[in-house]
Specification:
This protein is an alpha/beta fold. It contains 15 helices and 14 strands.
């Protein structure tokens, strides 16, 4: 196949005539691996879209991004118009471009996925974002101030998205959080090779310019109460997402150099001083337990830090593992190895208390669970050992907890400890709303963006009725 359309070519057949191109460049540092297309490549790749009358990609997109229109404009070289459409239809378009798991959503739904390769929608969106920034495309201005104020509890992705949307609607917004810097896991746990921290810092500056106030470093045990928040603001949105990591509960979990993956990541992704010392992996065999995105991050950081080996033990197979396929492929390209259908059952150590190996069982995959992935079933008598000098546990996170703020204990919770909300995302306490992980767990980042946007629509409706005296 060629990489460009020749004279007399039919644009409808571009998907057969133009190879899919991934803008990858493997680096040995913590900078982003993916680099944007140039204009020619973006146009060629967008031309592969067959412009379905009922596009599956849009149906699969939680944010209802106008994908066919963006691709049509890009294919035609109308980059300015395409960037303006992206900036107009999406709040915080950089999050759509950088954190979306398009390989599981729009690209997985593309009709070209089987006969060819799907259109690289994510990479084209990244190109449009960068093109817009470079060529001065601006976001829609905020509406005039309406005199009402909203407190947003939580400075992570959900809180930032909600604050931006509320500020655009004319509300005075104050974000409150316990970390010293806003951004949540975007700046405390997400490696630079996935999202450049400068992108997050740029958004925080734009929010400040839009009038959003940040109150960081709050001690929720004594600095505020829910009653004070309700008196000082017209509405409160609880958008907390940070959680505790799921512990390892098999024999040997207490051995030295058996550590949680998330604190390991923090030493390379956060500017906040940590109380725990970094885990030394240089020249060591690192085994990561788990198959999600945190596990992929741990593998890739371990390799960047000089690990002699980085092996992922996953109970499921490649098709059913929870990680974004792109992240798994990146880790493999960088040298990580994967041992699928393997369940750790014990950690072995030496007389000095250091880990030496992980004992595993082979598993079979049974019926699908609630997530749609097939359930691992251990097979007795299939034990085997995997050598290890360092074990990093990446079994995900527990449901988020409410801060120890006076009055928050009056909120109704479900059996998981998540806040109960009605159809409008209001809690059992009037004028207190909740969204994101604190409402339903687990939730992906892109679903968090959608939930934040939905919460804003309902808050705006609620406060508009108050303004009108309804």
């Amino acid at each position: 196949m060629s990489t460009s359309l020749g004279a007399g070519s039919n644009p409808k057949h571009a998907w057969r005539e133009v190879d899919r191109v991934e803008p990858t460049e493997r680096l040995s540092d913590f900078r982003e691996v993916f680099h944007p297309y140039d204009e020619s490549t973006a146009s060629q790749q967008a031309s592969r879209c067959v412009q379905c009358p009922n596009p599956n990609c849009v149906a699969a997109c939680p944010l209802e991004v106008p994908i066919p229109q963006l691709l049509a404009l890009t294919a035609d070289g109308q980059f300015q118009d395409a960037a303006e459409m992206l900036f107009t239809t999406q709040s915080l378009p950089e999050f759509v471009a950088h954190i979306c798991v398009e390989k599981r959503l729009c690209e997985a739904a593309c009709v070209l996925d089987k006969p060819s390769d799907p259109v690289p929608i994510g990479s084209i969106t990244r190109f449009l974002l960068d093109y817009g920034w470079k060529h001065g495309v601006t976001e829609p201005p905020s509406l005039s101030a309406n005199g009402q104020r909203v407190a947003v509890i939580g400075s992570g992705l959900c809180g930032l998205v909600a604050a931006d949307a509320l500020a655009r609607l004319g509300y005075g917004v104050t974000i409150m959080g316990s970390p010293l810097k806003p951004g949540g896991r975007l700046v405390n746990g997400l490696p630079g090779f996935k999202v450049d921290r400068a992108v997050i810092e740029r958004r925080v500056r734009l929010l400040t310019e839009r009038g959003v106030e940040f109150r960081m470093g709050i001690d929720f045990r004594q600095d505020i109460t829910l009653a004070e928040l309700r008196r000082g603001f017209d509405a409160v949105l609880i958008a907390l997402g940070r959680t505790d990591a799921v512990p390892l509960t098999i024999p040997g979990a207490e051995l030295r150099n058996v550590c949680q993956a998330y604190p390991f990541l923090l030493h390379y992704t956060s500017d906040v001083p940590l109380q725990t010392p970094p885990v030394e992996v240089r020249g060591r065999r690192v085994v990561v337990l788990g198959g999600g995105d945190t596990a992929m991050d741990a593998l890739r950081i371990a390799l960047r830090c000089g690990a002699s080996e980085a092996l992922c033990l996953c109970r499921r197979d490649l098709e059913n593992m929870p990680a974004d396929p792109r992240e798994q492929r990146n880790a493999e390209e960088e040298g990580a190895r994967f041992l699928f259908l393997s369940q750790p059952v014990a950690i072995g150590g030496n007389p000095s208390g250091f880990v030496t190996h992980v004992r595993c069982l082979r598993v079979l995959l049974g019926a699908p669970d609630a997530s749609g992935r097939r359930t691992p079933i251990p097979m007795p008598g299939t034990e085997f050992d995997v050598p290890a000098d360092v074990v990093l546990v990446a079994y995900g996170f527990a449901p988020p907890k409410l801060p120890p703020c006076p009055g928050f204990g009056d909120l109704a919770l479900d059996e998981q400890g998540c806040i109960k909300v009605d159809a409008s995302q209001m809690t059992n306490i009037p004028d207190v709303f909740a969204a994101g992980a604190i409402v339903r767990w687990p939730v992906s980042m892109i679903e968090t963006v959608r939930d934040a946007q939905k919460a804003v629509v309902n808050i705006d409706r609620f406060l508009a009725e108050r303004r009108s005296g309804a």
